[in-house]
Amino acid sequence: MLDLNGDGPVDIEDLQILIGHWGQNEPSVDIAPAPLGDGVVDANDLQVLMRHWGQDATFVAHWKLDETGGDIVYDSIAENDAVVKGNALWQRESGQVDGALQLDGINDYVKTPYVLNPSESAFSVFVWVKGGESGQSILSQEEGAHWLLTDAQGCVGSALVGIGGRGAGGPLMSETVVTDGLWHRIGFVWDRSYRSLYVDDELVATDVIEQLNFPDRQGGLFIGAGKDRESDTLWSGLIDDVRIYDRAVISQ
Predict the structure, then answer these.
(1) What is the second-level CATH architecture of the domain 59-245?
(2) Are 99 and 128 in contact (CB under 8 A)?
(3) Domains of the chain: which residue ranges?
(4) SS3 string of 179-235?
(5) Span 30-49, pLDDT tens digits
């Protein structure tokens, strides 16, 4: 973990911790080389820390979808580069944040590596979408669950179900339509007590659960497809700027 004191950013306090353990065999500070270090806190660890200086250490994946060609979607934060499947079209000037990816709802989607298990800690996901139809999936985890989807009315929801609390056993659904042909920023936040859905940075649904009931899967994510890539779940529209954090982010 690059954020050595757990407060979010990589900053001077983390540097002080590293210096305080210089030359020692301290696993919590021995961050290089990944994943287990080399048995001593030294210049290798300092180099990695400085490379991430000022960054939010809880920002674990960011697919900007600003590419102009090819089938690789680069993760600007980590090493979770993804692959475009089908015949998706890059739209360099049609995104909400620079470029975007146009999916046809037939065989287009993006496949990422494994990023995280939603049940293990607080987490947040945000994505811009435009278009789409009712019953389609915006983001899901392979053989896991639909993280973000639309219902029969085109309202956004999440099928990340919980154990205990008022929302136990069912999906979290809103009454906010996002398939109206306009750009919308959709977010799902789990803070280990509440599931919350956001549309355009406004809270549109929330409930109380004690724990997310998520299968122990190591599958990657499908951007623009359901967890089993069913044909009726494939997104038909634009997707842009997908962000994942391993903490609860109220708004961005």
Answers:
(1) Sandwich (2.60)
(2) no
(3) 12-51, 59-245
(4) CCCCCEEEEEEECCCEEEEEECCEEEEEEECCEECCCCCCCCEEECCCCCCCHHHCC
(5) 988 876 789 999 999 999 88
